[in-house]
Design the sequence.
């Protein structure tokens, strides 16, 4: 059974017919070619598929696309603006907050939410905010440093 959905993704409104069991991650990756949203576990354990839905970090592998009807979704592709990296993207680049890069989109999206809710988080608050995102390469040190750097460069510290 198909359903019509209207979702604003990265500032562009999309009207789509989707099977009612289509996951948001499938819609983003398979239908809209927004492959920055990674799927790692399909169980919401890893956080690689995290996107912002109406400003809330949401694991798109466990949300149906029909649940996003009428919502604004931001993927990692939507963070940059007018050819300029988002401060969190720039901070991850500057502070080497990635290794293999698989978790990076979800980490960045979650970090954006952390900084929107608290522009000057402590290290403990950053680590707590990132707890739903797994990284198997970095040990998190440079990821936390990147979030701190972004906070400092956006007026947070």
Sequence:
């Amino acid at each position: 059974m198909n359903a019509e959905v209207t979702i604003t993704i990265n500032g562009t409104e999309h009207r789509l017919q989707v099977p009612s069991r289509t996951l948001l991650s499938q819609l983003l990756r398979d239908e809209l070619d927004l492959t920055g949203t990674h799927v790692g576990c399909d169980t919401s354990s890893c956080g690689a598929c995290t996107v912002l839905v109406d400003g809330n970090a949401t694991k798109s592998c466990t949300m149906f696309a029909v649940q996003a009807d009428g919502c604004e979704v931001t993927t990692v592709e939507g963070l940059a603006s007018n050819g300029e990296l988002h401060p969190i993207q720039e901070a991850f680049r500057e502070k080497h907050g990635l290794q293999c890069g698989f978790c990076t989109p979800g980490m960045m999206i979650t970090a954006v939410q952390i900084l929107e809710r608290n522009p000057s988080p402590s290290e403990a608050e950053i680590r707590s905010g990132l707890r739903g995102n797994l990284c198997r390469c970095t040990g998190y040190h440079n990821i936390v440093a990147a979030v701190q750097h972004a906070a400092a460069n956006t007026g947070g510290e």
About this structure: The beta strands are 2-9, 12-19, 50-53, 56-59, 72-74. The mean pLDDT is 95.
